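From the thread on structure requests for the teaching lab: each student submitted one protein with a one-line request. Submission from student K.M.:

"Model N(6)-L-threonylcarbamoyladenine synthase from Spirosoma flavum, tokens only."
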Amino acid sequence: MSLILSLDTSTTACSVALHRSNSPTSGALLGCYELFTERTSSAMLTTLISDVISQAGYKLAQLDAIAVAKGPGSYTGLRIGVSTAKGLCFALDKPLLAINTLTAMAEQIRSYFSTEHLLCPMIDARRMEVYCALYDTAGREVQKTSAKIIDEQSFGNWLEQKPVVFFGDGAAKCRAIIGTHPNAIFPDVNILPSARTVGQLALSAFTQSQFENIATFEPFYLKDFMAIPSKKTLF
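Reply posted by the TA:
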């Protein structure tokens, strides 16, 4: 049996989940706390961790691994999530697992679509840019994670071949531009990153010993951090 704590702070949504696996092929969600706010809720991360573990009847020392959504996403959110996960790993002497945020998003909905569909999770990257990737409904990545500026030609080749499901907080800007294409599907449900599916994928990664080097691991920022100039003046 393995007990895995998972964290996702890729966006302003902050979530923590606890999973237990009884075999290499099955696992159970023991608890999950999620916060959805306009501003980052990562400041509540340590409280959520304490609550989900204690409510499930466990202690930190009983964990077998810590998993974290590695990105892409918010620079600040990822930095907080990864720093917290690494701190726990060092303190508890536990291994670190890292899951692509977009892969975990695709995991949320892939069972609802047929094999003819492709899934395109999107995270808002400001202006007309999104972080995105393409997956088939078996969870395989068919187009690598990238930062893409959306225009009328975006995903044109894929849309000519198959229906593509666009979702996540970056999908709205895409819908306004390519939403009229007959193969472009935009679910009405708002799908955000969640530690629930980070934990599901982490269970499999744990059985395969896909551990990160805790000392050198860095979030998958995808692009360099760009600070927003302050509007304050000196005089």
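TA comment: The chain has a mean pLDDT of 91. The radius of gyration is 18 Å.
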